Every structure is written in C-alpha cells, then in structure tokens.
Amino acid sequence: MLTTPRDRFLLTTLTGSIMMVAALATDAMLPAFPTMAEHFGIGDAAVQQVLTLFMFGYALPHLLLGSLADRFGRRPVLLAGLGVYGLGGALCLFAPNFGWLLVGRFVQGMGAAAGPILARAILRDLLHGAELGRYLSFAMVVFTAGPVFGPSIGTLILTIAGWREIFIFLALVGAALIFWVARGLPETLATLDPQALDPRAVVSNAWIVLRHPQSGAMVLLLSLVYGSLVAYLGSSPGIFIGFFGVSEITFALIFAIIAGLSFFSQAINAALLKRFPPARILEVVLSFHLGVTLLMLWQSYADRASVLSLTINLAAFFVCFSFILANATALAIDPHRARAGVASGLLGFLQILIGTLLGSLIGSFVAQGPTPLALGMSLIAAAILIVFFVTRRQFSLSAAVTVKG
Length: 405
Description:
Blueprint (H helix, E strand, L loop, with lengths): L4 H23 L5 H8 L3 H4 L1 H11 L2 H11 L1 H20 L4 H15 L1 H13 L2 H15 L1 H16 L4 H20 L14 H13 L1 H31 L4 H25 L5 H24 L5 H27 L6 H24 L7 H21 L14
Helix pairs in contact: 1-8, 1-9, 1-10, 1-11, 4-7, 4-17, 5-6, 5-8, 5-17, 6-7, 6-8, 6-11, 8-17, 9-14, 9-16, 10-14, 13-16, 13-17, 13-18, 14-16, 15-16, 15-18
C-alpha cells in the first residue's frame, strides 16, 4: 500500500481526515457556545456540557471498537462508526431541548471515536518505530485542519444561518468520509483475530498494553496532557468572549492562529524523527511545556494577562501538545502490532476519560478568568514531567532511528 509517493500521500491524507472528525465536531461548536447558552437559558459553565457529553461518548466505545477492529477488520468498523456519527448529528439537529441535544452529542461522540482509533491502528498495521512517528506527524498535519478551520466555519455558519446548521455541515463531512473510506481504503489488517472479542482476551490484551513499561507510561502521559487540551477547549470561549469581551469572529481567528501552528510543529517533528528517537524529542519538549504553563500562570496571577499574552501562551502550549501527541502515541502503540486495535482503543479510552474529567474540573472555574486554566495546566505539565523522568529508564532515549523512504 505504501509502494509509491502517491500511496503515502493518500494514506496520510485519509488517516488525518478521519482523525479530524472528532476535532471538527468539537471546535466548530465553540463559537456557538454563547448563542446556545442564550437560546436554552443556561450559563457559560453549563453550556460546556455540549463538549463534555461529546467527550464521554467519545471515550466509552474505545475498548470495544479496538477489539471489533481486530476481529472484523478496520474498514467495516470505521464505516459503522461514521454512520453512528451521522445519526448523532441528526439528533442534535432536531433536538427540541438542551437534554436531547446532549443525547445527540453523546451519540455523535460515540461514532466519532472510530476515526482516531482506526487511523492509529491502520498506521500501525503498516509502519513501526520512527517511521510510525513520522507518518503520525504527517497525518496530524491534515488533522490540524479541524481545529484551525472549525471555529471559523462555525462562526460563518452562525453568522449566515444558526447554530443548528453547524450540524448539517458536520453531517456532510461524515457522508464524504464514508464515501472516501468505502472507495479508497483497502483492509490493512493482515490477519483477523477470532478471539479479539472474548472478554478474557480483551482484558488480557489491555493488561499486556498497560503493564508494558513504555506503553503504560505513555498512556498516563497522554491522559494528563489531554486534560489540558479539554480544559483549553472548554474554557477558551468563556475566557476570550466572556471575560475579555472579544467577538465571535475574533475568537475564531485567535483559535485558528493557535491551532494553525500544528501545521509547522508536526512537519518539524517529522523532520526531527529522521535524526532523533521520539523519546529524545519528548525529553526536550516536556521541559519547555512546563515553562510555558508556568509563565501563563505568573501572568494570570499577577493580573498581567491580556488577549495577546494569553494567545501567545496558548499557542506555545499547542505546539508542545502537537509534539507530545505524535511522539508519545508512537511510543505507546509501537510495541503492539499484534494487538494494534485494542492498544489504540485503550490509549484513546484512558486519555479521553481521564483528560475529560480533569479538563471539565478546570473548566468549571471559567467564570473566574484565565487563572484557573493556567493553574490547572501548570499542575498537569509538572505531573507529566515527573511521569516521564521517573519512567524514562524503562525505554531507550538514544536508540538508533531507522527510517524507510
């Protein structure tokens, strides 16, 4: 499947696009939070449930989807997941009240989970080592289109139509991806695992992944950093629009600038992986990550935070997050080709579940401005650095990097 440059381009474009489904479904809604809160008569903190319920729905099927993909193959599970994503969007579109909207978002999240799980499993079916990290970075470049353009698209739709029409756009994206997968993605799993759905096998495979020193450490690290991401996503509309008073259009522009840096950071990461192993890159990035969050905390606590300073700080965080996500994911799933589906699913389940709980806790203090966000992100960054330095002896930081092509 990767015999020509065209094959490699199509692989990274498709896997990046199906990774993007969840990001687009969250980020396109962010500018509509104030409008939705007004429509349903709820507060800024309550409207964050639109994000939280999506994330919980997104987390729950991860273990099952990974095992299903190991049992029946990547294609059928991916197509089914995209179908459920469309069903959830329809429930949101026609929701008569806020409760039904949350039900729809939960269902939409369950369907969206198939995208990143299967994208990671497909890449692991075909690649390993530093090459896997490089292609994850390439796919993340495509994925970045979701957070970059999502808020702008949401703002545009909100301006010319309404918040419900955002779900029509998301449904069209889901339909296009179903067509693309059906026509352009061959099955990448070489051998189906007939025991993958046996509960004992599921538990056994999950335990093998978690007790692996390298994988277990990276799963915890990714779960923590995902908490910062969820906190940022949930808090940013309330901070920029509610606290600082910027318009929805300005917020969409700020969000696009912050997320757009991933285009460059992922390309740089792919180039660095030609010379350095993923763990070596993480060693540097995690220290910088802590410094960025501490600077943001100092500025917020000293009442020196502004729209500009917060944008710069969050942009630096997002660059760090991009490096951490690609390299830690590669380290987490690389040892488990025989169970790539369940490894990918377990990784996603824990990082989203733990990350959503942490991020929602931090986001609940959004009315107090940027200081709670900065404090929460700083504590998480410190915990991540401790996890890495405590466990780094369990895997090589200087192993030779072998890259094909």
